[in-house]
Specification:
The complex is a heterodimer of chains A (312) and B (293). Helix content of chain A is 71%, strand content 4%. Chain A is mainly alpha-helical. In chain A, helix 9 runs parallel beside helix 10. In chain B, the strands form two sheets. Chain B has a six-stranded mixed beta sheet, with helices on both faces. A four-stranded antiparallel beta sheet of chain B has the order 2-1-4-5. In chain B, helix 4 crosses helix 5. The chains are: A mainly alpha (312), B alpha/beta (293).
Amino acid sequence: MTSTAMTAAAPGAAGLRSRPLDGVGARLRAPLQGMLGLLAVAALWEGYKALAPEDGVVIGETRVLPRTSDLAMPHVWDMVARLGEPTTSLPGAVPLWRTVADAALVSLGIAAVGWLVGTAVGLGLAVLMARLRIVELGLLPWIVLSQTVPLIAFAPVVRSWGARIEIGGWEWPPWLSVALIASYLAFFPVAIGALRGLQSHSAIHADLMHSYASGWWSTLRRVRLPSAVPYLLPALRLGAASAVVGTVVAEVSTGFLDGIGRLLVSYAGQASGDPAKAWAPIFGAVALGLVAAMFVTLIGVLLRPYRRGEAT
Amino acid sequence: MIEQMSEPAGAADRPSPSFPPSLPGPIGVPAVQVSGVTKTFRTRAGLVEALADVDLSVAEGEFVALLGPSGCGKSTLLRVIADLETSTTGEVEVFGKTAARAREDQDYGIAFQQAGLLPWRTVAANVALPLELHDLPRKQRKERVAHLLDLVGLGDFAQHHPDQLSGGMQQRVAIARSLAEQPRLLLMDEPFGALDEMTRERMQAELARICAETGAAVVFVTHSIPEAVFLADRVVVMSPRPGRITGVVATGIGREVPRDDALREDRAFFAKVTEVREALHGSPVTGVGREER
């Protein structure tokens, strides 16, 4: 899932000036290429399954290529068909895709909150660091250090702290712990990217604004933030990917029951009896990453005026 | 002021009623007064003396070119006048105020070698930037921008973005922007340095026309001798390491003389070019050199 979201992020980072596309053919090209890529992965999967030995490839004691049994690698069509079947054998059970979609939507909501909080915190820290060099020197190492703490180490801590918070009649809901952990991952790329972007304006623009006796905040709004946009967009995309990963991992490690993280774990446990079922939440998680990446692409479209190439 | 601005540009004599100076200054106060200015930069290699004991006075409405080789401190001098750098010693006065005060009061307009337009803003929004920063009401801002774009001949490009313009057009936008607040002083740091020769000559003629219309004093940094003679009332010649003024040549070409191709062919113009070159090299140019010219 991580790699999917990251791959989706990469083209935006490289191609700040996207070529103007025109015509129906050009508009259809991207989705068509996406479909082709999907088919290629399915073909690779089935091709390997058909050609490789049942027990995988073992060199010495080490298995270098996986088993191709239906247990380890269900057929693509079985996995797709399983999505349409009922989740459990209980009477009245909803189709599997419905269960996965519901859980994925819950996770998406949590990831969105985490991303928003992370983006706000990241932007705030970046502005603070851009404002005062001393803050940058003092804070930046801690920001980098913050990301070396393993998520599963502090997830239970966040949950148990959260469980003790009660303000008035309001109790800290468990999903907020998950969102908080997601934001902890999401703020990092935003803070780093935004700081870099806020420092990227040209010396001439700085001189010009100084000659206009423009204040720091006014310069921030009119020059520094707009020139930060090309750096900010890839950062936001990375942040969105991090928020999704953070949400799924935090759901698992805090024992949150309604999201896709829980499905991933529990269906994996049922894989010996129902191997195709375990893949459903994985597809759900991939879709989650894609939706997050698409959302940031949409932001990029809205901010297109600020992505014009620097005038020569 | 609004009615005056809506008059067609270019029709008026200097000082143009369509483009009055921002504030009537006290009589006899020079636009720029630089006295005993030195500027020392601290670099890794040690102290570098960029300016040594520079005195310069620019009268109201006067066009002064700062001429010299690279590294002679002419840009530094301009930046000190603009309060983008502070002098190490000495005093700078702009219209009788400190340089910092003059900057805060927007007494000068400035243009650099790079146009320095904000790429995400349209041409009109770029010119409007200083007006917007100083809270000119929207309606007046719009009129003023339209007038300025007409002045530099870019009326039809108001809604274009900088990346859709040629280098010369971008520089014209930058000049329009520098004129936005009707400054009585223009500071220009090699504004045509990055342009090709043909564009450059056309821009020089245009700048001369605009200056005649606005009546603003100009401090113009360049390393082109013909450019300096063509535009300026006085050419201030500087030498490097440490940067100091080594000569001042009055061109004697009156403001009433049109800056056109005829002037470039004029014998008196050549004579002044030679005189400035001699001042620059510190010795008379040989007779042969004169003939060739």
